[in-house]
């Protein structure tokens, strides 16, 4: 599904291919974004040494924490990946957050002991090896048949999916932020889809939210495609929900 590349030992989040090999320098994450002029320049000197891998670790997260909560907590920073840490199949309250550039780690550390809801969150520096070890553990758990999802989403009420009438539209949740239309089409490779059928949802800053809508040829296909619910894209479990053209249009126009 993902292109194979040779990854070097160097430094920034664009080289985290073991977990997100679909990242590419053409990704919108690596262009300038709102408020980026001061903290997003990766070209500052490291005296000939590779820059450090830009990852921080969080502790004390609420157990109903979502990726959107982490993004809000680090508002203004470019987040490439969020990895929730599980122990015994349950969310541990810890997560790794990979940023676009090493300099952003300094800004992330400034959020240490700030609140998320009623919880104050610890933020501290981490290392490439710690992040990849956590990735390997999560992937190993999934291959071992763990029934949990990749991130806690206790706020959602997703029961009764089988009772919903299908309209030919499905909503996807939990996509890697780097996922493109080709990745979604490959996820549904058993169905005839074109790029025009895939709609990646963006936030007000033009960044992916981790959701997408897919238009199938008919309601029968969308109902059949629900069999892909909780399957993986990369190392992420993808949740699928029956949707409607109106819900899709409203989400795209936001």
From TrEMBL:
<keyword id="KW-0677">Repeat</keyword>
<protein>
    <submittedName>
        <fullName>Heterogeneous nuclear ribonucleoprotein F-like</fullName>
    </submittedName>
</protein>
<dbReference type="InterPro" id="IPR000504">
    <property type="entry name" value="RRM_dom"/>
</dbReference>
<feature type="domain" description="RRM">
    <location>
        <begin position="168"/>
        <end position="245"/>
    </location>
</feature>
<dbReference type="InterPro" id="IPR050666">
    <property type="entry name" value="ESRP"/>
</dbReference>
<dbReference type="Pfam" id="PF00076">
    <property type="entry name" value="RRM_1"/>
</dbReference>
<dbReference type="GO" id="GO:0003723">
    <property type="term" value="F:RNA binding"/>
</dbReference>
<dbReference type="InterPro" id="IPR035979">
    <property type="entry name" value="RBD_domain_sf"/>
</dbReference>
<dbReference type="InterPro" id="IPR012677">
    <property type="entry name" value="Nucleotide-bd_a/b_plait_sf"/>
</dbReference>
<keyword id="KW-0694">RNA-binding</keyword>
């Amino acid at each position: 599904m993902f292109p194979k590349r040779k990854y070097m030992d160097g430094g920034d989040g664009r080289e985290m291919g073991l977990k997100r090999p679909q990242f590419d320098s053409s990704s919108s994450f690596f262009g300038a974004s709102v408020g980026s002029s001061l903290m997003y320049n990766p070209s500052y000197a490291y005296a000939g040494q590779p820059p450090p891998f830009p990852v921080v670790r969080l502790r004390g997260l609420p157990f109903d924490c979502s990726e959107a909560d982490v993004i809000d907590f680090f508002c203004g920073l470019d987040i490439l990946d969020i990895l929730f840490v599980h122990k015994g199949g349950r969310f541990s309250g810890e997560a790794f957050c990979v940023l676009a550039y090493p300099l952003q780690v300094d800004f992330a550390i400034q959020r240490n002991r700030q609140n998320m809801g009623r919880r104050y969150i610890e933020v501290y520096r981490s290392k490439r090896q710690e992040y990849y070890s956590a990735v390997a553990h999560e992937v190993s758990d999934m291959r071992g048949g763990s029934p949990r999802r990749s991130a806690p989403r206790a706020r959602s009420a997703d029961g009764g999916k089988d009772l919903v009438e299908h309209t030919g539209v499905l909503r996807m949740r939990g996509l890697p932020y780097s996922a493109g239309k080709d990745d979604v089409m490959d996820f549904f490779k058993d169905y005839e889809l074109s790029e025009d059928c895939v709609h990646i949802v963006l936030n007000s800053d033009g960044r992916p939210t981790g959701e997408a809508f897919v238009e199938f040829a008919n309601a029968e296909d969308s109902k059949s495609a629900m069999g892909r619910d909780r399957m993986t894209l990369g190392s992420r479990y993808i949740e699928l929900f029956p949707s409607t053209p109106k819900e899709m249009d409203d989400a795209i126009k936001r």
